[in-house]
Amino acid sequence: PHPNLKILTVKNFMDEFPPWVRRIASLGFDNVVQIKFLGCKRCREIPSLGQLPNLQYLELNGFDSVTHIGPSFYFANNHSESNSSGNDYHGRTLYPALKSLTIEDMPNLLEWMEARVMSTVTAADFQVAVFPNLKELTINRCPQLNSAPSHFPRLKQLSMSSIESGLLLERICGNMLTTLKDVEIRLVHELTSIPHQMLYNNRSLTSLTISSCHSLEHIAENLSCCSPCLRKLEIINCEKLTMLPEGLYSLQSLENLIISQCPNLTSLPSIHEEVEAFTCLRRLNISHCDGLTVV
């Protein structure tokens, strides 16, 4: 390919990638801004792209044979397993310009690992700086995935759907994540509660959608300590949810509130006389909550 290549799309490639794709990060393609791998069902390993200095948009879709996103995703030639080369990555940043990452339709993906290398100086592994500018992360239809990295220092938009384990959300929304603004959680089947650190640590959160999480029983103890910027809250088709958090009425920036298809929801939180509720609310939709008797 031309050395000034900026956009690369590989679609329905039915074999292992050729050498130039596997080594694209080390062949001088520094101008690449966007890469899409679509429907590469027989490829068992994702190429190493972490050293591309200007890569901003990456989509990984339809890798049916991939079970792990591991060292090869970050390091050329699997550096993390070589003690002699681990020091080469000390102080370096991988995926330095990446803004948007989409991982979709990977039915056998089990694990997305942290970026770690072995130091020959300390004889211990250390975590490498990675994704410093990632703002959008989308994970869809990866039903078996149950682990992911936990350090996304500038992540603003998180979308997850069609995943079994609730551990994935808890892992991503660790104590270090404080920058979220928009969260969509759909069809996370084993999710029983929303991670408290996601609600309490992200003070700029403006939109939260929870839909079709059929095991969800608990959202939060109290929403009064959540983001004062929350403008949109949607809770849809969560059949095990029986109550909403206290402090719902303290969300003074809330403009859109939708509660729908929660058949076991029996009442809304009580409102205290001293609270001026929903001063900015423009849209209120409470529907198909058959057990709701008190509003």
Describe this structure in words.
The chain has 295 residues and is mainly β. 7% of the residues lie in helices and 25% in strands. It contains four helices and 17 strands. It has helices at residues 19-22, 71-74, 167-172, 196-201; strands at 7-11, 34-38, 57-61, 68-69, 93-94, 100-104, 111-112, 116-118, 125-127, 129-130, 136-140, 157-163, 182-188, 207-211, 232-236, 256-260, 283-287. An eleven-stranded parallel β-sheet has the order 1-2-3-6-11-12-13-14-15-16-17, with no helix packed on it. Strands 4-7 form a two-stranded parallel ribbon. Strands 5-10 form a two-stranded parallel sheet. β13 (182-188), α4 and β14 (207-211) form a beta-alpha-beta unit. The longest helix is centred in the middle third of the chain and has 6 residues, at 167-172. The protein is elongated and about 65 Å long. The model is unreliable at 78-87 and 118-124 (pLDDT under 50).
Biggest sheet, open or closed, and with what strands and sense? 11 strands, parallel
Strand content of the residues, in percent? 15-25%
Average pLDDT taken over every residue: 86
Structural class by sheet pairing and helices = mainly beta
* H/E element order: EHEEEHEEEEEEEEHEHEEEE
Assembly category: single chain
Q: What is the end-to-end distance?
A: 63 Å
Task: Identify low-pLDDT runs.
Answer: 78-87, 118-124
Quickly count the helices: 4
Helix content: under 10%
Rg from Cα = 22 Å
Shape: elongated
Strand order of the largest sheet: 1-2-3-6-11-12-13-14-15-16-17
Number of E strands: 17
